[in-house]
Amino acid sequence: AQSVTQPDIHITVSEGASLELRCNYSYGATPYLFWYVQSPGQGLQLLLKYFSGDTLVQGIKGFEAEFKRSQSSFNLRKPSVHWSDAAEYFCAVGAPLEVSGTYKYIFGTGTRLKVLA
Amino acid sequence: DTEVTQTPKHLVMGMTNKKSLKCEQHMGHRAMYWYKQKAKKPPELMFVYSYEKLSINESVPSRFSPECPNSSLLNLHLHALQPEDSALYLCASSQKPGSPGNQPQHFGDGTRLSIL
């Protein structure tokens, strides 16, 4: 069965420190992988995506993620965290539905990031 | 700034009321989605519209009735909701149905729905 696991429910880092959020997936075919961020009271904003090519993907706001097929992982990183990065982060895999040509996201349970001043 | 606009931002309604949520996008996207998100949980897919036709209903109760009157607009009609339906309702769109590799979903900011 397809699934996405985000092992860390909460993470707290100091402003300026580096960050790594973990994401593991279970998917039979080549995965389409995404990281989204959700600030309180807002919708989800796409940070970056991976579907082929270079396994190190650059995104917005200084984020990057590395796809490691051997570890079934797609971890999100940022070298220096800013206070405004405090939010909920969701990893997702795009999976085809039974209806041809339609797909859905399978989301992880999310990681809540707290940033200390 | 979001390119998917949802109205209203907040809605409080009684269990006997009828109301509608609206979602609009002008990016030319031909796939649109409704999600329900409870607090501290990931979004749950409710409906998928593909070229203005309902293609997926994730076993959603009939008190939720989606409608896609044109390629830019998606509605969610609500009737006789229950307190457990209180949640954030998110709309999303993608360029067209199919491989998500180049066509990620774009989300609106949601409607916060409270059922009294």
Round the Cα radius of gyration of chain B to an integer and report it: 13 Å
Number of helices of chain A: 0
How big a fraction of the residues of chain B is strand? Answer: over 45%
- The unreliable regions of chain B are none
- How do the SSEs of chain B run, as a string of H and E? EEEEEEEEEEE
Shape of chain A: globular
**Helix content range of chain A:** under 10%
Largest sheet of chain A: 6 strands, mixed
Helix/strand class of chain A: mainly beta
Q: Span from first to last CA of chain A? A: 41 Å
> How far is the first residue's CA from the last residue's CA of chain B?
31 Å
Q: Kindly estimate the percentage of residues of chain A that lie in beta strands according to DSSP.
A: over 45%
Radius of gyration of chain A: 14 Å
**Total number of beta strands of chain B:** 11
Percent in helix of chain B? under 10%
Helix- and strand-based class of chain B?
mainly beta
Order of helices and strands of chain A: EEEEEEEEEEEE
Largest interface: A-B, 26 and 29 residues
Regions with little confidence, pLDDT below 50 for 5+ residues of chain A: none
Mean pLDDT level of chain A: 92
Shape of chain B: globular
What structural keywords apply?
heterodimer, A: 117 residues, mainly beta, six-stranded mixed beta sheet, four-stranded antiparallel beta sheet, B: 116 residues, seven-stranded mixed beta sheet, globular
Characterization of this structure:
The complex is a heterodimer of chains A (117) and B (116). Chain A is an all-beta fold. Chain A is 0% helix and 54% strand. Chain A is built from no helices and twelve strands. In chain A, a hairpin with a 5-residue loop joins β7 and β8. By secondary structure, chain B is an all-beta fold. In chain B, the strands form two sheets. In chain B, strands 2, 4, 5, 6, 9, 10 and 11 form a seven-stranded mixed beta sheet that branches. In chain B, strands 1-3-8-7 form a four-stranded antiparallel beta sheet, with no helix packed on it. In chain B, β4 and β5 form a beta hairpin. The mean pLDDT of chain B is 92. Chains A and B meet through β5, β6 and β11 of A and β5 and β10 of B.
